[in-house]
Amino acid sequence: MVGSEIQAVLSKTLWAAEPTLNSILNHALAGGKGLRPTLVLLCARFGMHDTLEVRQVAAAIELIHLASLIHDDVLDGATIRRNLPALHCVYGTVPAILTGDYLFATAFNLLTDSKKAVLKTVTEAIRSMCSGEIRQLTSGSPNVEAYFNYIGQKTAVLFSAACRCGAILCRLKRSQQINLARFGWHLGLAYQIIDDYLDLFGSPRLMGKPNRQDLTRGIITLPVLRFLERAPNAEDWQVKIQRGLKPAEIEELVRAARELNCDIETADVAREQVTLALEALDRLPPNPVQEELVLLALKILSPLNHADPAEEPAEEEELLRKGPGLLENNLTCR
After folding, report:
1. What residue ranges define each of the domains in the chain, with the CATH number in brackets?
2. Alpha-carbon distance 97 to 106, whole Å?
């Protein structure tokens, strides 16, 4: 969950007198792990810093993340986010897009009084996130290299920016900023790989959203790429994926991928990325906050130990009922 100090900044910054906007913003802020703002807070503790400035930058990073999720859900047609109906399913597509824009604008308002290097780091991260999505929409045949490029731009770049912003705010040397940024980069890669692992092999309860969504939309992630490398009938599966998999075919693919140890190999790749993150952290001067960053990195790996594929998937209809006024207003995703 987002820490109380960041939640206070968000609540103050996003409060709106207009009831509908306030309701939309409260829905957008619900849930979340708060990893990215936590990275800003922790990395700033490597040196002296302005507490208020650090909190505002951390809040801005969280708002940018939330805005990107709202826009992604519209693009992907996702219906569930954080165990709640996606924003566009409750309030409509146009209000959702505008809410994402509103959060971006609010984030930059929080950054106006911060250091120029912070603003440059954040804007470069957003540009990378957008270009990654464009590349994904226009890419050809997927491969492992393209996958890592995509998740780097989609996820790792904002983790990295969060760490670098914290380093900038406590005035670390450039080489130390780079090492903290590398820590965030590899941590972000690990986080996305685990997210993709859980989408294929995990349970909706653990994900906070329906699983198998990537395959349903024809998105090829690392465990599926490994499966296509090893499966004797890989060409047949590629044809099926391109035309759209049926639910029974998805279950068949998941079983076959497990038999080929694609789940184990994907988990190992995530662990390797965390190892690289910790190696970057070790290059920094000793500081008590390093222990907290190590614990955070290990916590990111913890879902691999608790994935429960045998659990019955939660019904989307039940999750949708958690949306405020969804059934009463007879709203649908549009």
Report:
1. 4-312 (1.10.600.10)
2. 14
